[in-house]
Amino acid sequence: MSNGEGGLRAPVRDIVAWQDEDYWDEEKLDEETRRQFDVCHGCRRCFNLCDSFPKLFDLIDESETYELDSVKSEDFKPIVDACTMCDMCFMVTCPYVPPHEFAIDIPKLMLRHRAKDFRKGKVGFKEKQISKIDRNGKLGQKTRVVSNSIVSLKNKPARYVLEKALNISKEAKLPKFAKPFKETFPINTEAPSFGKKAILFSTCYGSYHNTEIIASAYKVLRHNGIDVSLFYDGCCGMPQLEQGNIEKVMDQAKNISSKIVPLLSEGVPVIAPIPSCALMFKTEWPLLLPNNKNVLTLSKNTMDIDEYMIQISETEGLADGLVALEGDITVHMACHSRAQNIGPKSAQMLRLIPNTKVNIIERCSGHGGSWGVKKENFDTALKVGKNSAKSIMKYDTKYFASTCPLAGDHLVQISEKEKNKDLKELKEPSHPIELIALAYNFNNK
After folding, report:
1. Which residues contact 150 (CB under 8 A, 6 or more apart)?
2. Domain span including residue 300
3. Helix segments in 292-377, DSSP class H
4. 77 and 144 in one domain?
């Protein structure tokens, strides 16, 4: 029996068959693209998710026959380029995803197009440099005084040069570089979860840019009795996946999983504080390497930091010490948090703070990782995230958190442009785990 529209069965993703010859066959790719685009054009449920779908609908509606038969295949590129690979069309909106017989998966179709272009050398030098996260992070961190001056929006000459050199919009807020975090915090032997172990994957963002997120997660976990150790041996590969550099992603998957899996034992999870990294470990790597035992083991043992905190709160209970904050919280659920299909765990976690009201925003920020900082995409990124920013501004709570730090910064930047007498500019964003650390009196945010 096929999965009817509006069916209750969970989406099931097909393996990304990138190692098959058919995957790279341009005629078969064009055929599959037209098949899926035709379904989307007839449905239009995703018209307000991102810029890809309006571009698709306009392209067909303005064609000679008002159908795909009069649309040239080379005109599909702007649709592919506009996709942020947020996964919301697949996970939330589309009624035709597998196991429905139509088997619509636009994000993976866009990945196939980008993989083809990358293999053909159509991804430029500038874009490739942006995705060299570890090289850029290590260099920026070592020279952080100079690096932070260069990325600052106040340094207009440097940002002008950066835009010309790397195509990064001179108006886009970029993450600063921070001092490395050192593991120094005692384990609370009186905590209900004392005796448990975990590995905290510190991520490229947490290792090079916002080390306070890692420090907060580390302190909160150890205060809750968890013998947590840090692990980082390279970026998860999301920036490369966005470009279609599948082989580089697989190199990262094989390397990281081969080193982290031997550290695991029964009941020891790998915890990721950034949702994109958790999504890569849980879903994207296994779809690309379905027969790699290390990748599959890591996938089964990975948890989002908010997901893990809820688990221990429901099983053993949290350690004492959480106190009410000085105001309420509005939390933005980033797309890659929602794509994990675990529910609003960050909001659940924040509601563990006594006497604190938590509002949830579940709309795209428009940032899309490295996509949103590109010169040609930045204005669109602002447009897509405007409704989310305005919704958060209307709540006007003392604290604003986003599960994705880049999304949080982007929403603040939108609020700076949208503020008026009725809507106040958003305050500096926090990661949800930072607010838990604050409620434990570990941070002074």
Report:
1. 158, 159, 162
2. 197-314
3. 293-300, 305-315, 335-338, 345-350
4. no
Per residue in 181-234, pLDDT (tens digit) is 888 899 999 999 999 999 999 999 999 999 999 999 999 999 999 999 999 999
Q: For the whole prediction, is pTM greater than 0.90?
A: yes
As given in the structure block, the two tokens for residue 214 are 């890692």
Residue 190 within a domain: no
> Is there a single domain that holds both residue 393 and residue 433?
yes
Q: Positive or negative CA dihedral for 101, 105, 110, 115?
A: negative
Q: How far apart are CA 206 and CA 212, in angstroms?
A: 8
Asked if 222 and 188 touch (Cβ cutoff 8 Å), the reply is: yes
Q: Determine the average pLDDT of the residues in 272-284.
A: 96
Of residues 216 and 4, more confidence is placed in 216
**At which of 314, 342, 370 does a domain end?**
314
| Whether residue 30 sits in one domain with residue 47 | yes
Please name every residue paired with 359 in a beta bridge, in sequence order, or none if there are none: 330
- DSSP assignments along 12-48, one per residue: -PPP--TTSGGGG-HHHHHHHHHHHHHHHHHH-TTTT
The dihedral sign for the CA sequence 13, 19, 22, 25: positive
* Mean pLDDT in residue range 341-369: 94
Q: In 10 A of CB 180, how many CB atoms? A: 10
Mean pLDDT, the chain, whole residue set: 93
The pair of structure tokens assigned to 163 is 């835009």
* Same-domain status, 84 and 113: yes
Of 326, 318, 396, nearest in space to 356 by CA: 326
Residues 420 and 337 in one domain: yes
Decide if 237 contacts 253 (C-beta within 8 A).
Answer: yes
| Structure tokens given for 32 | 């599959």
Q: Is residue 394 included in any domain, yes or no?
A: yes
Same domain, 251 and 341: no
Taken in order 292, 404, 93, 10, is the CA torsion positive or negative? positive
The secondary element (H helix, E strand) that includes residue 104 is: none
Length in residues, the chain: 445
Average pLDDT score over residue span 49-74? 93
In this structure, is residue 180 part of a structural domain? no
- Picking from 72, 76, 103, 73, the residue whose alpha carbon sits closest to that of residue 90 is 103
Burial class (CB in 10 A: 0-12, 13-18, 19+), 21: exposed
Q: What is the pLDDT of residue 184?
A: 86
Give one word for 188, left, alpha or beta, with left for phi > 0 and alpha for psi -120 to 50: beta
Are 382 and 432 members of one domain?
yes
**How many structural domains are present in the chain?**
4
- Asked whether residue 114 falls in the same domain as residue 147, the answer is no
